[in-house]
Structure formats: structure tokens, C-alpha cells
Specification:
This protein has 205 residues and is an alpha+beta fold. The chain has one domain: Jann2411-like fold (Orthogonal Bundle). The chain is 45% helix and 13% strand. Strand 4 and strand 5 form a beta hairpin. Helix 4 crosses helix 5. The protein is globular, with a radius of gyration of 19 Å. Zinc ion binds next to loops.
Length: 205
């Protein structure tokens, strides 16, 4: 039976690859340096990322702004805290150590209130999740990230999660290479830098 009252306001979010949560943790760059680059300096940066990278509809972001704008600092801090929890969970996996129980507990708390993926629809050649739009809070906004995190943590590609071998970069990536030998987040940045470094240091003195 359809409950028409609860269906009054719904949003459609395109399905996302499981790598979305890895993109999310990589919104902080150069983690191994004294001055990492932070993508989310303001709530607007976070909302723009949600729209452009996580497929959150503009109308849903407006709905969030309408009810949560006074708390924007808290919302931004919470989003960054969640991102760091995910980064540490992924990093511990990439390094083969047990995750911090506290981080796992925080993630579990978010998962308790994440929007359920129960309504799958198809439109314009793609799949979408229909979610309840009555109360768009931060967890709701970050639902695609949380879905992606669950898919990655509980999926077969978790063992392919790696940390870039550049100690200054520390980006995470899923190694989909055939022989699983990828070491760098990207050959064009960290890989070539390391090669140039090796070349320099191997020059005959
Ligand atoms: Zn890198």
C-alpha cells in the first residue's frame, strides 16, 4: 500500500559507484605535509561537492539550506569529522591493521540514520534512488557517500584499497590494475614525481 502523505516530498539521487567515498576522503590533499590542502573550507564547498560529485539534486541542497543554514559551522565540522573517520578506517585497511573501534562506532551511528536504499527507479537511461525529502539533514545529504562506504567496506574490492606510496600525498585509491601492482594515486602526479626523484638520486655522483 502506498502512503501518499509520506510520498509527498521525495528526491531522486543517481546511483553512485562505490569509489565515491574514496573520492570523499581524498578531498583533503597532501595529508603527509605540514600544510594539507582542504577542499571543504566552507559549507558552500561541501554543498558544491555534494551536487557535482555525489549527484545530490539542487532542490535537495536548497531544502538543506532552508533548515540547517544557522548550523552551517556544525554541519561542516560534522562532515569533515565523518570524512576523517572514513579516511582512518580505509587507511587501517590499506595498511593491514585493525580499525579503531571508536571510528567504527561513529560510522555505525551515521548508518543508523542514513536514507534507506529501498526505492530504485530508472529514468533517462540511469538508475536512481528515491529518498524521503521531509527532513534533509547532513546525514541525508551524505547518503550516497555512506552507501558507497558500506559497499566498499562490505564488498570484494576492499582488499584493493591502497594508500599512495608518496608519503606526502597519502591519497587512497582502489587498485584495479590487472596485477595489483599500482603504487601511486596517479602516475601523472605522484608516480612521475617519484620517478624523477629516483632518477635524480641514482645519478652517478
Ligand atoms: Zn599520490
Amino acid at each position: 500500500m502506498e502512503n501518499t502523505a509520506s510520498r509527498a516530498k521525495r528526491f531522486l539521487i543517481p546511483t553512485q559507484p562505490e569509489g565515491l567515498s574514496v573520492d570523499f576522503v581524498n578531498t583533503r590533499y597532501w595529508r603527509g605535509t605540514d600544510t594539507p590542502t582542504e577542499t571543504f573550507a566552507t559549507i558552500d564547498d561541501l554543498l558544491a561537492w555534494c551536487r557535482d560529485c555525489a549527484g545530490i539534486p539542487a532542490s535537495m541542497i536548497e531544502s538543506f539550506r532552508a533548515t540547517h543554514l544557522p548550523d552551517e559551522k556544525t554541519a561542516l565540522a560534522s562532515a569533515i569529522a565523518l570524512r576523517e573517520v572514513l579516511y582512518r578506517l580505509y587507511l587501517s585497511n590499506a595498511e593491514g591493521v585493525e580499525p579503531d573501534k571508536k571510528d567504527l562506532a561513529v560510522l555505525r551511528e551515521y548508518l543508523n540514520s542514513v536514507a534507506p536504499r529501498s526505492e530504485l527507479s530508472r529514468s533517462g537511461g540511469r538508475y536512481e534512488w528515491g529518498i524521503d525529502g521531509q527532513h534533509v539533514d547532513l546525514t541525508c545529504l551524505l547518503s550516497p557517500v555512506l552507501w558507497s562506504a558500506v559497499d566498499l567496506l562490505g564488498g570484494t574490492r576492499l582488499g584493493k584499497l591502497k594508500r599512495c606510496a608518496n608519503d606526502q600525498c597519502k591519497w587512497l585509491f582502489v587498485d584495479d590494475s590487472k596485477n595489483g601492482s599500482r603504487r601511486w594515486c596517479s602516475m601523472s602526479s605522484c608516480g612521475n614525481r617519484a620517478k624523477a626523484h629516483r632518477h635524480y638520486h641514482s645519478k652517478p655522483g
